[in-house]
Design a protein that fits this description.
37 helices, single chain, alpha/beta, seven-stranded parallel β-sheet, globular
């Protein structure tokens, strides 16, 4: 056993295990003693940031077992709790909080013992350990002492990764019809022999099949809108016709989701289609935006000295993971979500391509690039699992025009409107403008990194084509009019530099003049772009001229690059061609961005465009400004979605359990873009098969005063204790979530009930859900991201509590859409949809049971239609709600009432 002590801290107490206890147990210590020991002695911890937060010492470091696990078992899943670690290592978990510290010492021993065996991830470990020892990683001495030097040189990451290969373009999908009975037979095969036939699932699959029929009219896809209640089995229902069409037509079906959880579930379900893993890897590909994937060139820079301190250690652990990763996905893939948080996210974002700085074929790792490999694999796949944002980006400005999909399935279709709203918006802000400047000019001053400007990326073009070279120089010169480093400070001091910064200064001044309120201190402010003051009107002209001077050479450069491709000079080999094609695509969407900015500036002092909503905003967080600018959103973003994504498609299925968004089919048609197509969509609806009357009930608590944080916290605590944990608490404001958590965490710990909280615990949301799912006595507090992004079937989620009616935030954009959408009826639809989504977290399987509690006396009865028909809804006091939550089950209660 290691000589180091182990420290465990929870809301219930602090314990340490060391050699002073002859029985190998732990003793309780004070917070001050724990901090002193951790400062003087290397201690074994599990999740150092979390322990440090609970000790009130956020910079606490030590021998973090999660770091050791990431080194020994890269790309292997483990819930970052004592129980989760025990399961991953196959050892006995601790029975109580007091047993955790001794367990941590045993777990450290088990991990270190693996290093002396021929375990699956041995290759590369010795080399990585040597690098980590030079970086003074706390675990390095113990690791190096147990790792034998290999007989021959290990294959390192960049020599270990496989290369992708080019393939001939895939032919266009054949025109086929799926015959009667084929879908039912495929669905039966997917559900398994002997499985009970679910009529709702078969009806859903038959309806979905219409999206795969041949298209009869140009720009008019076969669009199916299908609302299918929870438990219908939508995934297999649409995979049956999708897989049949892909096989018969030789094309790819893109299945688009909104949450990473559903992407993972879909990837799991495709094992029923293709049980052989090798075939599944060829037939099914998961695609995400390029900012999700590890950039090998960024990683190489980090490993070669680009990172220092703790960030350099993270880079080494990421390199260990990359050698064993299935797809290089750093966000929701097989990289543990908790790993970047151990390093306070220091450096993790710099390892992905988040700034559009990819040099494509100019990269020495191009042939091994995770992003390019996923793109090429999807061109040959049968099923591509993507997300709404990627589908829209790919359709609007994707480089893969030859393999553009003709068939889509949009699961979680109720999110399409919001995804389109983000995708097709424009924002002329300081943050966006400085990113464009850096993309054009490259690094300036003392800036470090490998980012290169247009002149460096296209130097060969500049030397070959005089006009193209001149366009590059003109663009670089014009980009210097955009905001530069320190712009936000200059705005605050009233000393902007350049025409665009002057415009942003005028925006900031007008926002504070019209929107600032005492109670809004520290939070974002906004005001309509209407009746601008003289300062804003005067600043608009020079800013517009500066942007026009930038967009002209960008357009000219794009044309010259196309001409160079057509000339096909001798020096242009395959990599050079690919690099120029990538530059053309990047120039195209940046030119579109600047064009949208010019339209937004033209609106200042001019007439409003009825298709758009324009406003000014100062973005702030906890008292700190972080961006300033002008914003433009479509009043109806389903219009560009329909034009860009749906019209070129031949067929699409849009499905969700809450597709009608609290309204009727007219709402579903409007929010999905169906109303903008020449032919109407096909509608299909099937209710959930669950018996909500027997397994669930809604309790509206009438005596918790609105705005009383102490009373709200007391209500949450009493309800969670009554239910014995297993509670999902949902909030509409982060401030109230933090206030409630601070008041109840210790109280619940004394009851043996762990409490997790988004925006409080230094853990990513996906990992918080994993921990919550793994421990039936834990509870989780969160905001909108958890309202319909959580899938926790079974006993771990048996109570959902909402702090109040989830009314939409009264923003400028909401006000415009409310006016266009029917006033208060529009608000009601949003609330009903949100309530339905939140309630949907509770019952995920036929045997699930639970209660949904709404802490609001002022819930209008008209909103209660959000819940499934037959679900009992009762207005009760908090005392009554606590008693009902204390009862063993809803079913037992029903039987008692009937007897």
């Amino acid at each position: 056993m290691l000589p180091h002590p182990a420290l465990h801290a929870s809301h219930g107490g602090i314990w340490i295990a060391d050699d002073d206890d002859p029985w190998g147990g732990a003793r309780a210590i004070s917070r001050g003693e724990a901090i002193r020991i951790a400062a003087d002695t290397p201690v074994i911890l599990l999740n150092a940031p979390l322990v440090g937060q609970r000790l009130g010492h956020p910079e606490l470091n030590g021998l973090d077992l999660l770091e050791l696990f990431a080194f020994v078992r890269p790309a292997v899943f483990a819930v970052p709790t004592p129980k989760g670690l025990a399961q991953a290592l196959g050892i006995e978990p601790p029975a109580s909080d007091a047993d955790v510290a001794p367990f941590l010492r045993r777990a450290a021993g088990a991990l270190l013992e693996l290093l002396e065996t021929d375990w699956p991830e041995r290759e590369g470990a010795w080399t990585a350990a040597q690098n980590l020892q030079r970086l003074r990683w706390p675990w390095a001495p113990a690791v190096a002492a147990r790792l034998a030097r290999p007989d021959k040189a290990e294959r390192w990451l960049f020599s270990k990764l496989p290369e992708w290969s080019e393939a001939a373009p895939r032919p266009a999908p054949r025109t086929v019809m799926i015959g009667d009975g084929q879908v039912s037979a495929r669905l039966n095969a997917l559900t398994g022999t002997g499985a009970e036939r679910r009529e709702g699932q078969h009806a859903f699959a038959d309806a979905a099949t219409r999206a795969f029929a041949p298209r009869m009219t140009r720009d008019s896809p076969n669009l199916v809108l299908a609302e299918a209640g929870t438990g219908i089995g939508k995934t297999l229902g649409y995979l049956a016709p999708a897989s049949l069409w892909a096989e018969a037509a030789g094309g790819a079906v893109w299945v688009s989701t909104f949450t990473k959880a559903l992407q993972r579930q879909l990837a799991h379900e495709t094992a029923r289609l293709y049980p052989d893993p090798a075939e599944r890897n060829l037939r099914v590909v998961t695609r995400k935006g390029r900012e999700n994937y590890l950039c090998l060139l960024n990683l190489e820079d980090a490993l070669q000295g680009g990172f220092a301190g703790r960030a350099a250690i993270l880079a080494q652990l990421v390199a260990r993971w990359a050698a064993y990763s299935a797809d290089g996905d750093m966000v929701g893939g097989d990289l543990p979500g908790w790993l970047p948080t151990l390093f306070r996210r220091n450096g993790s974002t710099a390892l992905t391509d988040r700034r559009g700085e990819c040099i494509y074929a100019g990269c020495p790792h191009y042939r091994k690039c995770f992003i390019e490999r996923a793109a090429r694999a999807s061109a040959e796949a049968s099923i591509v699992i993507a997300n709404h944002a990627l589908v829209m980006v790919n359709a609007a400005r994707g480089r893969e025009t030859a393999s553009r999909p003709t068939r889509y399935v949009f699961d979680e279709g109720h999110h399409l409107f919001d995804a389109a709203d983000s995708m097709f918006a424009a924002a002329l802000t300081g943050g966006e403008a400085i990113e464009l400047r850096r993309w054009v000019t490259g690094p300036e001053g003392t800036a470090r990194g490998r980012r290169r400007g247009l002149a460096a990326r296209l130097s060969d073009v500049a030397s070959y084509d005089e006009e193209g070279g001149r366009a590059i120089q003109d663009a670089v010169e014009a980009a210097r009019a955009l905001p530069s480093d320190g712009w936000l400070g200059r705005l605050a001091e009233g000393a902007p530099f350049g025409p665009v910064e002057a415009l942003l200064a005028a925006v900031r001044g007008l926002v504070y003049a019209r929107a600032a309120k005492e109670e809004d201190a520290g939070y974002g402010l906004e005001t309509e772009l209407a009746e601008p003051d003289a300062a804003l009107v005067e600043a608009a002209g020079p800013a517009g001229a500066a942007l026009d001077a930038l967009v002209r050479p960008l357009v000219a450069l794009g044309r010259r690059l196309e001409a160079v491709l057509a000339d096909d000079p001798d020096w242009m080999d395959g990599p050079a061609r690919a690099r120029i094609e990538g530059a053309i695509a990047s120039l195209g969407w940046r030119t579109e961005t600047v064009g949208a900015w010019l339209s937004l500036i033209a609106r200042i002092g001019g007439p409003a465009d009825p298709d758009f909503v324009d406003w000014l905003a100062v973005d702030r967080s906890e008292g700190r400004e972080w961006d300033v600018g002008l914003h433009r959103h479509w009043l109806d973003p389903s219009r560009p979605f329909a034009r860009t994504v749906l019209e070129p498609a031949h067929g699409a299925l849009v499905t969700s359990a809450t597709l009608k968004a609290g309204g009727d089919w007219d709402v579903a048609d409007a929010r999905s873009g169906a109303i903008h197509l020449p032919q109407p969509a096909t509608h299909f609806e099937v209710p959930s098969p669950f018996d909500y009357a027997a397994h669930a009930e809604v309790l509206v608590v009438t005596d918790v005063k609105r705005g009383d944080l102490a009373a709200l916290a007391n209500a949450y605590a009493r309800l969670i204790v009554a239910a014995g944990g297993g509670t999902l608490g949902l909030f509409t404001a982060i401030r109230r979530l933090r206030g409630v958590h601070a008041r109840i965490a210790d109280r619940l710990a004394r009851e043996g009930l762990p409490l997790l909280a988004q925006h409080v615990d230094p853990i990513d949301t996906g990992t918080l859900v994993d921990i919550f799912r793994d421990d039936p006595r834990s509870s989780l507090l969160g905001t909108d991201a958890l309202r319909d992004g959580v899938d926790v079937p079974g006993h771990s989620l048996r109570l959902a509590v909402m702090e109040g009616v989830p009314w939409p935030k009264p923003t400028v954009l909401h006000a415009a859409r409310r006016m266009a959408g029917g006033g208060s009826a529009y608000d009601d639809r949003i609330v009903r949809a949100r309530l339905a989504q939140a309630f949907g977290r509770l019952i995920r399987r036929a045997d699930d049971q639970g209660r949904f509690v709404l802490l609001s006396a002022a819930v209008p009865s008209r909103l209660l239609t959000a819940f499934p028909p037959g679900t009992p809804v009762r207005r009760v006091t908090l005392d009554e709600a606590v008693e009902r939550c204390r009862l063993p089950s809803v079913t037992d209660l029903r039987q008692k009432q009937l007897s």
